[in-house]
Write a structure and sequence with these properties.
The chain is of the alpha+beta class and about 375 residues long. It folds into 2 domains: about 200 residues, Beta Barrel (Thrombin, subunit H), CATH 2.40.10; about 100 residues, Pdz3 Domain, CATH 2.30.42.10. The chain has 9 helices and 21 strands. Strands 8-9-10-13-12-11 form a 6-stranded antiparallel β-barrel. A hairpin with an 8-residue loop joins β12 and β13. The radius of gyration is 24 Å and the shape is globular.
Amino acid sequence: MKLRLLLAASGLAFLGLGIGLGLRLGERAGRSEASAPIGAAVLAAAPAADFTAIARSATPSVVNISALQVFQSQRSPFASDPFFREFFGRDLPFRIPLEERKTSLGSGVLVGPEGLIVTNNHVVEHARQIAVTTADGKRHKGTIVGVDPATDIAVVRIDAKGLPALAWGDSARAAVGEYVLAIGNPFQLSQTVTMGIISATGRSNVGIVDYEDFIQTDAAINPGNSGGALVNTRAELIGINTAIYSETGGYQGVGFAVPANLAKKVVEQLVSKGRVARGSIGITQIRPVDEETAIALGLKEATGALVYEILRGSPADRAGMEPGDVVVAVDGEAIPDAARFRRKLAAAEIGSTLRVTAMRNGKKREIKVPVQEAEPAAVRN
């Protein structure tokens, strides 16, 4: 059965391990050094995390968000008539504007003592009213500070002071196999904590948002967890839970979180500017390099990012870049795929100059390209 990608927010159509391990490590620790597997002594000596303390510290910072969303649509009064449907097909006449109302239920994380909350854009998108319930059961009116659909991050503020903000962690330090807690409000069950590990980092090409660099986890994430916290064993916020892969619509062990380092930058810009400014050099289409493309372009391996379309008169055009160039490095950093190149461009400082290494006709070229501010949705796949 084909997997479905669902955003983990209720109401949207898109949507004993530690004990056993400890026993096994204890058994290995009792063996002689000569017979113990490599690294077993290190694992046995590692201090156990106090998950009750972590949960007690982090859960007060996670809130419940209920948003009344209004979607504009059009419907013909003849939509239910088989004759008109057969005659007109999809182009039914006399369409009437309609408002479709839905309630999105998700989570959010307090990241500032003055009521500043980070959540997912899809939790509050098209919202007419936002209600935020804090861990103490108090209900507050929420207002949107800013949204960034390109990363599915949004910032909401409530009029409250002295709230327990969760400290940002360094998601660049997140390691595969590291224990994490997912905290949120799945199925309207408030203050729910689940545990798992980091399954992978740097996940891209998932098809959720424009700029993807997800932390993948097997901590249980379900509808309503969207916008909730992914917390490490230091009780630090390292990710914003966003989506799941599922055949059923429920948890199946594959969840994705926007890494904290990316979310924090987006939050800072939304708070200070109300929008996110990203770098661009005028490339409007970037595509991955597959085996067939690599052979056609005479490349030794299928790596890099294919420049498919360039805006005439843009910095990339003026600098001499051409469609068909395959970018393999930027400022000396290897570019393994199109997703990495997109993130590198977006993060580039506006006004700076990038040193782009590209392959053209089997030869490597160094091209210096100035960075300008990107227009919204300026780069697409």
